[in-house]
Structure formats: C-alpha cells, structure tokens
Amino acid sequence: MKSHKDTDPTTLWSPLAEHWSLDPHHTYLNHGSFGGAPIAVQEEQRRWLRQMESRPYQFYVYDFERHIDTARASLADFLGADAKDIVFVNNATAGVNSVLRSLSFAPGDELLVTNHEYNASRNALNFVAQRDGAEVVVVDVPYPVQSPSEIVDAIMEKVTTRTRLALLDHVTSQTALILPLETIIPKLHERGIETLIDGAHAPGMLPLQLNDLQPTYYTGNCHKWLCTPRGAAFLYVARAQQHTIKPLAISHGANSTRTDRSAFHLQFDWTGTDDLTAYLCVPKAIEYVGSLVPGGWEEVRRRNHQLASQARRHIANELDIQVPCPDELFGSIATLPLPDGALYPNTAPVEPLQQQLHDQYDIEVPVIPWPSSPKRLLRISAHLYNDMPQYLYLTEAIKQLL
Question: Which phi and psi angles does 229 have, rounded to 5°?
C-alpha cells in the first residue's frame, strides 16, 4: 500500500461509483449516517420539483394523493407490508416521536430500551417517560457479543409485569448489531408488550418482511440504504393501533369526514405544505439501485455485507483487534473497538481521531465513543460505490495515527 501522500483517492472507488455524485477525491465510508442518492434518483427528484412548480395547486390538491399512493404501494411491496399500514414521515426520528407522543402511560409503567438505542430515540423515550411518570428500564446488551441468544436473553430478563412498551433498534447505530427481532418480538407480544422498532438502517440493508415480523410499530429511513433523497422515511402501524397514532403536526385530516381514505392516511399524508418530492422518489430508488447489479436487491445486500465483512477482517487483522460479533449479527455497517484514545471533549463536534482522519486524509468514517470516551469504536459502511482499496487506505491512515 502506498503512503497516504502518494495515494490518489480517485482510484480507490468501485466502478459503480459513477452512478453517484460523491466527491471522487474524498474517501466516503459513512453511508450509514446520511446515505447518498444516485444521480438518476437526484434527477428524478428534480423532475418532481419541476412538475410541482409548474402547477403548484394542481400538484398538491388534484394530483398529490395519487402520486403518494403509488410511492406507498411500491415501498410497501419492498417492505413486505400492506400499503394500508404504511405512511410517510420525514425520518425515523419523526416516526419514533409520532408513536411515543401519541401513547400515554401510567406512573409505574416500564418502558424497555437497550443501552445501544439511538440517542435521538432514547431522548424521545425519556421525554415521554418523564411526562407520564413512567420508568425507563435499560437492558445492557453485551458488546462484544457471541450469539443472537445473548441479546434475546438480556432483553427478556428485564421484562416484568409492568413492562408496557419496548423500543428497540433493528440495527443499532453505535455498534451496528442486528437485533434478532424475529425471536424477540413474538416473545414480547406473548407477554402483552407492544414493540416500537427503530429500523432506521434496515430498509435496503436487510430483507424486510413486516407482515411476517409483525411489530406493533416500525419506522425506517429510505434515505440510507435505499438511497432516496433525504427526507423520506416511513412509519408502519399495526391495523388495530392506527386510530391511536397521530402525526407530530395535527392538520386538516384530524376532522376530515372523507370515507374514501383511512383516517390514518388522511392525517399523516397531509400535515401542511411541504416539499414531498423525496417520498415520490422511492419507486425510482428501489428500481434503480436494484438494477445496478445482476440479482437485484438480494445481490445488493449480499455485496454490501460481503464488503463490510472483508473490510472488518482486514482492519481487525492489521490492528490486532478481536472482532466483536459474528458475521450474522451485522449487515452493511460494522464496528471494531479501537485502542482507547484521548478524552473526548464535550465541545468537539466529533471524536478527535475522526477529525484527524478527515483533516489529514480526507476520509469520512465515524469514530464513536463507546460506551463512553475515551473508549471508542470505528464504524465502517459499505455500499455499491465503495471498494476494498478504500478500506486498505483507511487502515494505513489509522495505523499512522494511533
């Protein structure tokens, strides 16, 4: 491997990077944070913007419901769900908040969450618990972890007769673990406990079949692994609970007397004048990204996981690090524990090593304090535009900085 001074980052990308508009001089290994829409999907959004701006009233009043129904049907098919159970939201955080802010709890009720929960969602849970006098019960899911059963056992051991709701990541943000929800959800439902799944990373990374998984509530981003423009996410609500869940902005649908559409759709589909074009790009993103490799989305997921796995093994071997979980417990993002660093100052926007990688090597990759500074994790992402030479470059940069 050449030294970083001699490395040309433009030569490290996958040939498929030509479909994205990412800066070729930049080494982007952080798809998991904000995603990235292919050029064709960006052009699709511009097409929708031109249509919207050419006849704004017609777009919003006459045509919008038809367009959003088409996008919803495409997404529901991709998710293995019924379109009646799906609404669009701006992001998974909004989905989590929509559910939590709609529910009410009694003093003494227990709300279950793991120590791996995404900070924004955990903050929403804390807010609702404080509002209602409920108790947040935190499950310490082991990390490193050797098997899915360890995760299941840790969660179920914290369940009591007072547990009312479990907020669980499908793919944890900080540690990149896939929680075995196909086992956890039925066990919780048998105990009468509702499940709110923060699936921010799952659509496009995992082969979702929500009708089989049967969560009570499930929210996920389309702008991450599905590669839509940012501002597109969904909320799934089981049919029996749809009457209780309201959008964050109460608008015209709240007192609509229409009978041609469900109250669930009427209330969420129109919460005020907004740029809705990111939602309408979902069918194009599903079709286009799935067309980039033979084998469609199954192959997209396989390639991304294989690349993340190969990169993880290489970095672990070069830095003499033990991998923290088996391959079955991560998807297109993977984490590795790094040697302890300097204490992470509260005033810094990112961990110091992440800042150094950005400033000195133009590599974007998260370094996450876990469980707290100075302990830290390296989190790598893999999508079709990435290739193994980028992770070799990252490894050499880290070796020079540690």
Answer: -60, 155
Question: How far apart are alpha carbons 198 and 52 in whole angstroms?
Answer: 31
Sign of the dihedral defined by the CA atoms of residues 152, 104, 162, 111, in that order: positive
CB distance 134 to 111 below 8 Å: yes
Report yes or no: 215 and 235 within 8 Å, Cβ to Cβ: no
Domains of the chain (ranges, CATH numbers)? 4-38+294-401 (3.90.1150.10), 43-288 (3.40.640.10)
Q: Which of 145, 174, 203 is nearest to 366 (CA)?
A: 174
Say whether pTM exceeds 0.85. yes
pLDDT per position as a tens digit, 49-101: 999 999 999 999 999 999 999 999 999 999 999 999 999 999 999 999 999 99
